[in-house]
Amino acid sequence: MSSNGQRVLAGSRRLQTLAQHFRLQKPPQQKSHASFTKQAAVLVCLFKGDRGELRVILTKRASTLSSHSGEVALPGGKVDEGDADYVDTALREAKEEIGLDPSLVIVVMLLEPLVTKEGVLVVPVVGVLSDKKSFSPTPNASEVEAVFDVPLEMFLKNENRREEEKERMGEKYLLHFFDFEADNKKFVIWAFTAAILIKAASEVYHRPPAFLERRPSFWSVAAVKRPTMP
Description:
Elements: H1 3-24, E1 39-48, E2 54-61, E3 72-73, E4 76-78, H2 86-98, E5 105-110, E6 114-115, E7 121-129, E8 144-151, E9 161-168, E10 171-182, E11 185-190, H3 191-205
């Protein structure tokens, strides 16, 4: 079998394993984080690429947005009152932002929540796109400038990666930047979004990244001081 054939087979098996995990296990556990007044969920949507590799869908935020304009992000957004849970939030936002039909996504796991520097608790929801051919991105122009996809495994490799050391309140940490080019367009996946994808790739491929991650402790739920109730 050719190396390309082996990659296709490996990618198919990995997707099947993830989907099978969902079918055999209980639905993903969704812990309560009621102490956080601001909550959001993002969708880490995986599918098998043409060469058999696992890929993840990303967006470039519209330049007109008031926050994080022009940055690369995962589909997602703030929890609405009508959302049943974090999965509901992630799937609803993906449909609103890029036209992804929730029925095409098999949710396989929830990753450990992270907290942004603005104090928003973000829950990453990992799902498998059951039929890539049935999905034709229709980005919401008011929110999304572009929709593209990258190999998930790139977030475990040193290739096309750089880092910056930062310091906050005496703590030194690293921010990671991953460069990607597609259709003569250049994208940079960095910081918070990169951290989510490093974790997702580690879980899916069952191995740590080939570099020192050293994420800031203030992204951790445990490190964030809970707001006091009135």
